[in-house]
What does this fold into?
Amino acid sequence: MTTLITILFFGIAYGMILYLISVGLSVTMGLMGFVNLAHGVFAMLGGYATVTLMNRFAVPFLASLAIGCIVVSAIGFVLERVFYRRFYGRSELDQVLFSFGLILVAVALVRIAWGPLAQPIQLPNYLKGQVAIFGLALPAYRLALVGFGAAIIAGLWFVFDRTLFGARIRAAVDNRAMAQSIGINTSRLFAAAFGLGTGLAALGGGLGADVLAIAPAYPLQYIVYFLIVVAVGGLGNIKGPFVAALAIGISDTACRYFVPEAGSIFIFVFVFVVLIWRPNGIMDRRRVAP
Amino acid sequence: MQDNYAPNAKIRHPPGSHRAARNDRSGGEIASRIKGMKRTKEEAIIMMCTRGIGAKFLRCGAVIGAAMTIALAAHNSAAAETVKIGMILTYSGRDAALGEQIDRAVNLFVKLHEKDLPAGTKVELIKRDDTGVNPDLAKRLAQELVLRDKVQILTGGQWTPNAMAVATLTKQAKVPFVTMTAGGSAVTTQSPYVVRTGWTLWQTSYPLGVWAAKQGWKNAYTVVSDFAPGHDGEAAFIKGFTEGGGKILGSVRIALKTTDYLPYFQKVKDAEPDVVYVFNPGGPQATAFMKALDDVGIIKSKIKVIGPTDITSDEELPNMGRSALGVVTLGQYSPAATRKSNLEFIAAWKKEYGADSVPTFFAMAGWDGMHAIFDAIKAQNGKIDPDATMKFLRSWSDPNSPRGPVRIDEAGDIVQNLYLRRVEEKDGHLANIELETVGQFGDPWKTFNKTGQ
It folds into this structure.
């Protein structure tokens, strides 16, 4: 029984990592409809910012995360104003080509700035080792990941479902022309949403740095995970990716534990089956309102 | 679209076609062009340009050709003894740190010992990046190095799959290949032109299994990375441990690209073995393994963690932190060793790369690899003959390597001391402290297969 609970916990923690690094993409790609393959670039920059602030300037972990998040979302905002916004009406192929090019440029720049090696992260002592909860010894770092993931989904849900900003974004996503005609400045709104998405990516990159190592190849190495979570979760909502990340995390972890021989291919089989069953993702909004 | 490309249309469409007529606008001109007597201004300019370019190109070619002939002549007479060495390592990606270790050792050796080469002889290192476990790319790079760059010796060989691919090529190309850190036993059996200067997993893991059984541990679990050296390490440890009366509770192989190791180690913890044998290819993965072992609580439990030298890779010890304290490994080199030759090596290394840089067993394989290559060049006075080189390398020895006495045997494998080490704190840093010398070992896999076991 304790084993099952431990495995469940590990699965949730792993799902949270997947969720944290992908949630930003569910904002930019899911809500704004932009095929942003370069999402990992912002996660990587967040990771580099966090690690550099901690290692070189001895800034505490949480403060580094916050600063990294702000800096990267500012970078995201600027990039959106300068480049991304020119591609909103363009075909998906154009968007893919642009954002893939952005990955290659970012990978090269990061290699020049930080070198080719993975950046080690020294977690603060309170996130090391194990913590006893209800007689279970759980790794402190994973526990923190679960906490952060829960806080972020709650925060996002509040922003999108309960604030004027969220209502405007939903309106603009559903019908941009109509939103504009009732006086919503959709251009500025999308810039803000993009900044939010990249900030979340940066947060995920920094938080997950201990599991997904920060190195120049980051945006290419983990691109599959970002896309899987958003594809399985479905476009156009923020709860879908959360459910998808948890489902993938838990089932993948359980599979690694019980059938380790099949460990590495399970996730792909899972995605395969889900997408055959529901091609638009498990939480497809279009099924409800076609 | 049509408007954008209108200027080109003149060239693409035959004179007199509808479009050409529309663009030219001059009926008389069209008539004359049909007769082929007069060209439009633009066409004339283009013709002139291309002719000019062609002439210039020809002249350039002639100059380059002449220069090359002269250079080649000079090359043949004066610098005949430039030995070209092609080195394929991982310079980018997750495991670039490991490639950097080898690269630094090789560069340092060349820098310190270039003066010892016969008069007039030089070495030219041509480096290529295989980006990680990538046999296809490694083979292509080796092919280019041999065919285009005409290298006389190949080296590097950081990964077993890559080294296997390169080794098969050397069989046809007859180019000596000194593989440095590929640990799969089979690499040296692929071609008569391969020797290794690193280690094999059988070499470190079989004696470790024997040793573990002698400690009175009854049950073991094995966790290895899922690629050839991992399979070797698993088989070797199991053979050593079960021969000594031990029992294997289970074995797990983890895909190289895995990022989350917790479930695998939780399974180990639940099986409650006396000891867990772990192997990974070192580098950042070693730290990820160690953190996962700590996170599930194995490090602090009664279960002992042992493995070959890779799992407590010296450059990663600072990243592992206290998680790694007390882990026992069997390995051929620790920078913390106090042999005189090692103290000198460490001093030279720190002088070159800074006090914070630590050479690991990867660097050591590169260092001795270059040493063997240099000795082979010296023995042949700079004129590399593939078969003579292989004959020399297969009996090469150095009684004073920083890792202790080493030699290469007939099979092309390295014979070296193995030391039992434990991760301890020394002068405020973690280090692999050598406890005892277990003995000199070659590659046991070859011995077992010779006697039919």
Summary: Residues 228 and 448 of chain B are 18 Å apart (CA to CA).
